[in-house]
Amino acid sequence: MKNIFDEYRIAGISATLRNCRLFSGLNQKDLENIASITVVKTYKKGDYVFKEGDPCHGFFIVQKGAINVHRVNLSGREQVIHVFRAGDSFAEAALAMESGYPADARAEEDSQLLLIQKDGFLSLLKTQPEFALRLFVAMSVHLRVLVEQLEAVSLESVDSRLAKWLLKRMRCLPEGRKLSFELEIPKRVLAAELGTVSETLSRTLSKFKSMGLINVSGKKIDILNPAGLQEIAEKSKDVY
């Protein structure tokens, strides 16, 4: 019989799983089954979650923080694949790879992740066909959202993408701090997250500052005109 601590732990993890697009559509029992094979992991800024070639122990969901998944090319330069934030899942593909994780993953902020353990997850798929079918449907929805995001990167202007990022960041802040925050990731990482380069990001930040939308002082960003940012966010044509 589960003790009260286990029940609270599973309930808390299930709540996070419910907010993850990968598991949208799963019922409460499915979520609890996944929660029972999930481990909470914490990482300080700069800690590696895994490195390319490490054995796969499972895949991850971000509870809080930011995880930079990247590869290092032959010249030693880091190529950012994506920055994952709260509600995002990553490293699912590694479950089917004998070679281990295909990239490096590093915390860009103090972060808390859910590790869904490989052996337990594969066991669920093998022993519960109905669960596997429901997960397949949920993953199809998840894939469609990812494709739409990819299309957005190719069709929207950098102005629009940055405006959306600033508004999303603002909404994630605690009450009383919604108009001011520290940029905790390097600008080159944010640029990669937005599908652009550092020089273009810097020009766009300067443009927003000159328009009176934001103020930038070092790493601190103040949102001065959320409505103006929303207007830019809704524009979709790429002018670059």
Keywords:
Jelly Rolls; alpha+beta; 240 residues; 8 helices
Question: What this model shows, in words?
Answer:
With 240 residues, the chain is an alpha+beta fold. It has two domains: 4-153, Jelly Rolls (Sandwich), CATH 2.60.120; 157-233, Orthogonal Bundle (Arc Repressor Mutant, subunit A), CATH 1.10.10.10. The chain has eight helices and eleven strands. It has helices spanning 4-18, 28-35, 118-127, 129-155, 158-171, 187-193, 198-210, 226-233; strands at residues 38-43, 48-50, 58-64, 66-72, 78-85, 89-90, 104-107, 111-117, 180-182, 214-217, 220-223. Strands 1-8-3-6 form a four-stranded antiparallel β-sheet. A hairpin with a 2-residue loop joins strand 10 and strand 11 (220-223). The radius of gyration is 19 Å and the shape is globular. The relative contact order is 0.13.
Question: Layout of helices and strands, plus pairs?
Answer:
Blueprint lengths: L3 H15 L9 H8 L2 E6 L4 E3 L7 E7 L1 E7 L5 E8 L3 E2 L13 E4 L3 E7 H10 L1 H27 L2 H14 L8 E3 L4 H7 L4 H13 L3 E4 L2 E4 L2 H8 L7
Antiparallel strand pairs: 1-8, 2-7, 3-6, 3-8, 4-5, 4-7, 9-11, 10-11
